[in-house]
Amino acid sequence: MPDLKVARTSAYIKDDLAGTSDDGHTGPEKVKGLRGPHIDITFENRANGPSLITKATLKFREMGQLDKCSKAGGELGISANYDFPIPFPLPETPYKVEKEISFEVGTNELDRLTLTAGPETTLGTPWYGIADVVLKHDGGQKQTIGPFALIDTGSDEHFYPSSDEDRWVIETDDQNCLAKTSELTDHLLRTPKVTAAKELKTLQASLAKLGH
Questions:
Q1: pLDDT, tens digit, 9 for 90 and up, residues 143-162
Q2: Is pLDDT at 75 greater than 70 in this prediction?
Q3: Pick from 45, 84, 132, 135: CA 20 to 30 A from residue 117's CA?
Q4: What is the C-alpha separation between 199 and 188, in angstroms, rounded?
């Protein structure tokens, strides 16, 4: 019988998503290399027989957008092809989204399952969410993993996670807004037993350097 266990978890933003962009003039274009939130789960199966995961469900405890702390410039309409697209306007929480999948963890092997989730259309300010992952496997068994704290890049050219450094670009003098963002970031990171996106941690560090 399969013996599926979680070896480790992580969350991060990565630039491997396909999607479309629309500047409002030339029409939608297919694009690659879009950045978006990823959930990364490594499983181990120490048993004589493979384990098959057949369904994944994301249960969001909360989600929203960061406050608008700057006067954002011209924004493109960008849509990434997520495994779990979140509709806009953002739904009230708790919110559940699910998908049939087929992911096998071989006998006595370690295998990584990556899931992507985020707004179906990139929002002006970064989106965030706290979600548990429920996996159905091996004839109906269920396993809950999490929670995960996710954040995306948004499309504000004055407030976003740098793609090549462990920091956020923050170009604003709105200290009250930054203070509220710091409070929210701290709240998300205080979620018990949370696996937080690396970029959420760097947002906290970047705000601390600014005195928040």
A1: 999 999 999 999 888 999 99
A2: no
A3: 45
A4: 12
